From TrEMBL:
Residues 1-25 are annotated as: Disordered. It comes from Chondromyces apiculatus DSM 436. It comes from the Bacteria. Residues 181-359 form the KaiC-like domain. PANTHER family: CIRCADIAN CLOCK OSCILLATOR PROTEIN KAIC 1, PTHR42926. Coiled coil: none annotated. Gene3D superfamilies: P-loop containing nucleotide triphosphate hydrolases (3.40.50.300). This is Hsp70 interacting protein, putative. InterPro entries: Circadian_clock_KaiC-rel, KaiC-like_dom, P-loop_NTPase. The lineage of its organism: Bacteria, Pseudomonadati, Myxococcota, Polyangia, Polyangiales. Residues 9-25 have a biased composition (Low complexity).
Length: 424
């Protein structure tokens, strides 16, 4: 080794020898290196560190021109990772999203935020993901499987429940040549219209006639109290129902109480008393099954759900239960400013039968002459929107209301072109 004299008289190594000597940190340690670092490693936070590199990761050009000193290794890759893999991916997984690293990272972040390592399964598909039911596991499932070939009375003729109002003329016989002469028996019927048009009065009159025939009936009220026990002087619903029924049946009060009211049951279900839809269903089932009820009037279906968000769903559940018990049910409903019933088209699809009362504006002199009214006059008409078991009368029927009772009947000015059909 070459030496040179120093000012202190000692010998010092030459510059070429100093570059070859280890730094004071130990054998093979170079200036700027931390203890334990191998040659080529960059301390954390040092200039030149690539994004994603942890302290101590190798840096430098490796084989193939890739940083890291390992052939094919990209910045941020951990040992053992294959090209195209993202941090956190299981071995064998390639670059998703067509090799787009940004899309791959977004997908990985979504999976990590959801706490999943794979896209979630659609909840509606979960029941189909299991194995097929075996004979042992599926015991009892046959109860809901019907074989039409084994049913003896497959074909039936729709029967009618006579109410004695215009409602009897809206559904037709199978051949369409006659009115059915009543509402379809065993069906759930939605009767909707503006207030004060005779919906409740016509339904109560019909209920009285059914009860007079010996059938037990139920009146579900959700809009007001039934009987005023405080003596306020108000003509309460009990009084109005009795007077309407007496007029419809032509009976005096004593005979009406004995022949009609003995078969009438009233179920109060007002939401302001803290009663929910579930409470109503429990009481309704109890009454129907205990008393063998076969005809029901509900006034109104909308008020059983004050939010008016589940009217169609509630009607669907009620209809299914009524079918199982053979109940004819008239559900009185309200309409919105659009003219559609509360519950919208969903309610119309759900009910077996839909009757809709509307105000028709006579917008021309010809139309006024046709309907027996005055130009720009508004008249009340009722239409059958649908019936799943019968044909329907294809035209609107102009409605009149009987003095004293308010029952809906056919107006004398009903156009001859739209004449109602005789009952069978």
């Amino acid at each position: 080794m070459a030496t040179k004299k120093t000012s202190r008289g000692g010998d010092a190594p030459s510059s070429s020898d100093a570059q070859a000597q280890p730094a004071p940190g130990g054998m093979g340690v170079y200036p700027g290196m931390m203890p334990g670092m191998a040659p080529g490693m960059v301390p954390g936070g040092m200039p030149g560190a690539m994004p994603g590199m942890a302290p101590g990761m190798p840096y430098g050009m490796g084989a193939g021109g890739m940083p890291g000193g390992v052939p094919g290794m990209a910045p941020g890759m951990m040992p053992g990772m294959a090209p195209g893999m993202m941090p956190g991916m299981m071995p064998g997984m390639g670059m998703p999203m067509g090799g787009n690293p940004m899309m791959a990272m977004m997908q990985m972040m979504q999976m990590m935020m959801g706490g999943m390592v794979a896209p979630p399964l659609d909840p509606s598909a979960i029941p189909f993901a299991g194995g097929a039911a075996t004979a042992e596991a599926g015991a009892g499932l046959d109860a809901d499987i019907i074989r039409p070939s084994l049913i003896a009375d497959r074909i039936k003729t729709q029967e009618a429940v006579k109410l004695g109002s215009v409602l009897d003329l809206l559904c037709l016989t199978e051949d369409g040549k006659n009115a059915l002469g009543g509402v379809p028996k065993g069906c759930t019927i939605a009767l909707a219209g503006p207030p004060g048009k005779g919906k409740t009065r016509s339904a109560l009159a019909g209920m009285a006639r059914v009860a007079q025939g010996g059938q037990k009936v139920a009146f579900v009220i959700a809009e007001e109290g039934f009987h005023d026990e405080e003596g306020s002087g108000r003509d309460d619903l009990c009084s109005r129902m009795t007077k309407i029924g007496m007029a419809a049946t032509q009976l005096d009060e004593e005979t009406f109480a004995k022949e009609v009211l003995e078969n009438v049951f009233v179920l109060e279900s007002q939401y302001h008393k803290g009663q929910s839809w579930d409470d109503f269903v429990g009481k309704y089932r109890y009454l129907v099954e205990r008393e063998n009820i076969r005809f029901v009037v509900i006034d109104s279906l909308n008020m059983l759900d004050p939010t008016k968000n589940r009217t169609a769903d509630n009607l669907s559940a009620l209809k299914t239960y009524n079918h199982s018990k053979g109940i004819t049910c008239i559900c009185i409903g309200q309409i919105r400013d659009t003219g559609l019933p509360v519950g919208g088209e969903a309610l119309q699809h759900t009910a077996d039968v839909v009757f809709l009362i509307e105000e028709m504006s006579l917008g021309s002199k010809e139309q006024a002459e046709q309907w027996g009214g005055k130009y720009r006059e508004k008249i009340d008409v009722i239409s059958a929107v649908k019936s799943v078991t019968t044909p329907i009368f294809p035209h609107p029927i102009r409605v009149s209301r009987e003095p004293g009772t308010g029952l809906m009947g056919v107006h004398a000015a009903q156009p001859a072109d739209y004449a109602v059909l005789p009952a069978r």
